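Comment thread on ticket #2218

A.B. wrote:
> Attaching the input chain for the structure job we discussed in standup.
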Amino acid sequence: MSDSFRQAIGRKVVSRASATELGAVGHLLVDAQQRQIGAVAIGRGKKSRLVEWAQLSGFGPDAVMVIDEGALRPPADDREREGVEGKLDLLGKRALSERGNELGRIDDVTFDPDTGALEDLVIGDRRIPAGALLGSGSYAAVLDKSQEA
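C.D. wrote:
> Ran it. Output below, let me know if you need it in another format.
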């Protein structure tokens, strides 16, 4: 069963070890090369903390479960800081073909909540397989040229 970025943003994050609510999902940081969620940003802005996908014990419809509070960490580099600030979000990002042609804006992304693997990018009424994603940065996401209409 798939989940989506739009539904996941704002979902509460809870420590499995202490049952303490740690915050809410602020951003999902994507590893475009692997086409999966690499980390979850808890909170927004400068006080955001990250948790690696591997440190999650569950990504359910009501809450995201983190193994324990010790799994949270600050951003380690500039790319992660851009991620927690929302500069790398796929939602709302321009989608360009590798030839530079405009494909639209990404309205949503579906993913497998068990593995974090991206499934589809939703652009308007089109569902594009995540395998077409070649890369993503602060300006745009780049998709395989086969996605040109």
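A.B. wrote:
> Thanks. Noting for the ticket: The longest strand covers residues 21-31.
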